[in-house]
Please model this.
Amino acid sequence: MKRLRVLVIMREGLVPPDTLEGRSEKEIAEWKSEFDVVTTLREMGHDVRPLGVFDDLSPIRQTIQDWSPHIAFMLLEEFHGVASYDYAVVGYLELMRQPYTGCNPIGLMLSRDKATAKRILAHHRIPTPGFSVFPRGQTKMRARQLPFPLFIKSSMEDASLGISQASIVYDEAALAERVQFIHESVQSDAIAEQYIDGRELYVGVIGNRRLQTFPPWEMVFSKMPDHMPHVATAKVKWDREYQKKYGIKTNRAKDLPPAVEKQIMKLCKRSYRALNMSGYARMDLRLRKDGRVFLIEANANPNLEYGEDFAESAEWIGIEYEALLQKLLNLGLGYHPPWKG
Model:
């Protein structure tokens, strides 16, 4: 394996320390993904430079000019605090003719905008819940031709930001209240989509032209009462005590009929290609009791923390964490943006 100069780009303030020693669980949670990637790449023998970025691109340019990294490992999920600007930073890397890991700018932009992504998926006849968008400033809150219950969330943010049990609404009054909440607290447009009651599945996809899918992973709500919707709220994803209370964990999806699993894998690859994605992604799906599968979201550059869903599902088929990171490096180096001709 060739020793590479790897510039790891992340948000300012998330540059990890060299060791976990003396750090609390809460501290570690903030930069665990960055720590795992940086530490593992170094253990693999690569020359690694972490770089924190907030609202200034000049450190990226300076490091590229001074150090000539073989590749930039893209862990930055926002710029100037705006999540939808991650595509612009990757676009800047392309302008600098700098190879990078993860998704290309167009794929990032299309998949980040949930409404645009759904329109593209619908055009390709990929099953996704019906939806309606409520731009900020809109006062009329009515989801035309969409039956209740509806699931309300930000049209741009990820990581379950702004999502709670109250995100599922059953009438017009609750719809208006929740849309207003998204407008004011998340500061983004809101999207209302049909709530699909069923199993919560995640599928990792990796590749540029030739794609590979990882086994379906499932979020299990073993202790959650039936009257509470089983959805991945912010508390479900990030609150350890809440997870323990309701028996929430993720693992290999069990008892999926082979035909359904095959359908899911095909659906994920079609969605990945339809949204012009590259590098790697995680597809979020819902499987109803009647066997129908719905693509909920396509997430470019998902969490790479060791032990999390994406890495765990790769390990299930024999791709250890080091090998997974090396695959991402190889895909980044092998990707052909326009500047390569």
Summary: The first strand starts at residue 5 and ends at 11. The first helix runs from residue 25 to 43. The chain has eleven helices and 13 strands.
